[in-house]
Amino acid sequence: MTDYLPNVDLSADLSVDWLSSSISSDTSKTTSILLSIGSVQFAMAKTAYDRLTRSSGWRWAKVARIGRLPARQSLGPDDDSIELSGMIITERSGCDGVKQLRDLMSTGQPWPLIASSGHILGRWCIESVGETQSKLHSDGVPRKQTFSMKLSVYGEDYG
């Protein structure tokens, strides 16, 4: 199956300084960044997801034919979405991970999504961010936060 998103070099518009600093020949110093959207990095030591589900579609028009089954005509790609879920141990990585996701979402802008390999997956919209807090300290600060996030591809106009 081929990736229908064109390979577009968006690097002129992106800050990927974190990538060069995370790649090192000494693997003991390498930061385990899984994915990045905008300024938020999903990393093993901080805000990490444990489930990523990607759903892609293709649009087909139904064409009626007399005396035969309908035919289908390809109209091109349909929505592409990603759902992430994970857990944050706040004693290790702080309580601001979900807030950063909400702040990014509230800008109303699509953000570059970058894989750990440095491959730019295009611009994506954050549609929703969910959070559950548990194992609370006596002051109400959670020890554990689980989060979920839904992304949809922005739908660039290429060419």
CA-based shape: elongated
Instruction: Show unreliable segments.
Output: 1-29
- What is the alpha-carbon Rg in Å? 20 Å
Query: Describe the biggest sheet?
Result: 7 strands, antiparallel
Q: Please report the total strand number as a whole number.
A: 7
Q: How are strands sequenced across the largest beta sheet?
A: 2-1-5-6-7-4-3
Termini, distance in Å?
23 Å
| Percent of sequence in beta strands | over 45%
| Helix-strand sequence | HEEEEHHEEE
Mean pLDDT: 79
Helical content, roughly? 10-25%
Would you tell me the structural class of the helices and strands?
Answer: mainly beta
Count of DSSP-assigned helices: 3
Explain the overall architecture.
With 159 residues, this protein is mainly beta. It has 3 helices and 7 strands; from the N terminus they run H-E-E-E-E-H-H-E-E-E. It has helices at 17-22, 90-93, 97-105, and strands spanning 33-37, 40-43, 48-63, 71-89, 111-115, 120-136, 142-153. The protein has a 7-stranded antiparallel beta sheet with strand order 2-1-5-6-7-4-3. Mean pLDDT is 79; it is low at 1-29.
